[in-house]
TrEMBL record:
Top-level taxon: Bacteria
Name listed for the protein in its UniProt record: D-methionine transport system ATP-binding protein
Family: Belongs to the ABC transporter superfamily.
Residue ranges annotated for the ABC transporter domain, each copy included: 2-241
Protein species of origin: Paenibacillus barcinonensis
Keywords in alphabetical order: Amino-acid transport, ATP-binding, Cell membrane, Membrane, Nucleotide-binding, Translocase, Transport
CDD domains: ABC_MetN_methionine_transporter (cd03258)
């Protein structure tokens, strides 16, 4: 659906250049919600703006729906762009136009007949829950309502892709969640491919199928959100994931520092992180296993939450007892389908 091949973007000239993206490859499937997460300056905005050529790459190819956008003429590109909707952090609405006229704007630009515009605008405003607000001006709306207008406007041209540029960063947590839910509903209803950039793991965890972590203009890690979230490999990803848990990195360090409290003679211990996914989150696998092996455990840290409505749990526990029994516990938990990482 979207293929970025060897994408490089350099800003500036001669000696004063900044490389925002460096030989980046990325592949996004039809109908998925794909998130790109990274710290400030990592290259997220440049990346998403390259997908509709709002930013022209210095090198590389951008394929959307089987067409290489970098090779299209101006008029062909304009036509292709209509299939790529975009929403923005600060909404970018026309302040002097009503809600209705903001949504009608892209349709008027391509001379759509008046009655078709009217039908489409009403359909879109109903979709985003703003049918009662069509004659208001942006200044009379809340942030969440403004973003709903942005979504309605972006979808009015029936795009196959929606690009979301930090679309919830200016909103409070509750409004963020309602906008994320709307995006999820739209993705399901229209099988719309959604690409979003964010610096918040919460956004990725809530609605994305897959995620790529961008750092210094390159992808350092990517995969299904469940995998990347539960077993982050790169230091930048680990930082994002642990920040999302209460207490973040500091708590993780405290747990490790206090991992080896006093044990009796002949008693061994191992500090492990156990991850549960799906229905296993609610099963008594841990207690059943230790009852069998005779190992004790102390819970040092724990989370139970969801990743795109799939439950998961993650516990940091210290097993105590005979070393052979601890090892048996670990292999039995693994055989039960849990992921067990020995920390020390
Ligand atoms: N128009 C520009 N001219 C010069 N340098 C730019 C321009 N736009 C971005 N950059 C630089 O390119 C790099 C990547 O910027 P980009 O805005 O893509 O990052 P980002 O991950 O979106 O950051 P943020 O979350 O702060 O928006 C940064 O070093 C930035 O300073």
């Amino acid at each position: 659906m979207i293929e970025l091949v060897g994408l490089t973007k350099t800003y500036g000239r001669r000696s004063k250049t900044t490389t925002a993206l460096s030989k980046l490859d990325l592949s996004i499937q039809k109908g998925e919600i794909f998130g790109v997460i990274g710290h400030s300056g990592a290259g997220k905005s440049t990346l998403i703006r390259c997908i509709n050529l709002l930013e022209r790459p210095t090198e590389g190819e951008v394929w959307v729906d089987g067409r290489n956008l970098t090779e299209l003429s101006k008029s062909e590109l304009q036509q292709q762009r209509r299939k790529i909707g975009m929403i923005f952090q600060h909404f970018n609405l026309l302040s002097s136009a009503t809600v209705y006229d903001n949504v009608a704007f892209p349709l008027k630009l391509v001379n759509t007949p008046k009655d078709a515009i009217d039908r489409k605008v009403k359909e879109m405003l109903t979709l985003v829950g703003l049918e009662q607000h069509s004659s208001k001006y942006p200044a009379q709306l809340s942030g969440g309502q403004k973003q709903r207008v942005g979504i309605a406007r972006a979808l009015a041209s029936d795009p196959s892709v929606l690009l979301c540029d930090e679309a919830t960063s200016a909103l409070d947590p509750q409004t963020t969640d309602s906008i994320l839910k709307l995006l999820l509903d739209i993705n399901k209803k229209y099988n719309l491919t959604i690409v979003l950039i964010t610096h918040e793991m919460h956004v990725i965890q809530n609605i994305c199928d897959r995620v790529a972590v961008i750092h210094q203009g390159g992808i350092v890690e990517q995969g299904p959100v469940t995998e990347v979230f539960l077993k982050p490999q790169h230091a930048i990803t680990r930082d994002f994931v642990s920040r999302d848990h209460e207490g973040g990195v500091a708590l993780e360090e405290m747990v490790l520092a206090n991992a080896g409290s006093e044990l009796g003679t002949g008693v061994s211990s191992k500090l492990v992180k156990v991850s549960f996914l799906g229905h296993k989150t609610y099963e008594a696998i841990l207690s059943r296993t230790v009852r069998k092996t005779g190992v004790d455990f102390a819970i040092l840290q724990g989370t139970i939450s969801t990743i795109k409505q799939v439950p998961y749990g993650q516990l940091t526990v210290r097993f105590e007892g005979d070393i052979g029994a601890i090892e048996q516990t670990i292999s039995e938990l693994t055989a039960e389908g849990l992921d067990v990482e020995v920390l020390r």
